[in-house]
Amino acid sequence: MRILIADDHEIFLDSLSLLIATFADVEVVGNCKNGAEVINFVKNDEIDLLITDYRMPQMSGIELTIFLRQNYPEIKVLMLSVSEEAEMIREAFQAGVWGYMMKRAGKAELQKAIQTIAKGQKYFSESVVFELMRLGLTDNIPKEEVPNEFNQLTEREMDIIRLLANELSSIEIAEKLFIAPKTVETHRHNILKKLNVKNTVGIVKYAIKNGLVD
Question: Residues 150, 196: contact at Cβ < 8 Å?
Answer without folding.
Answer: no
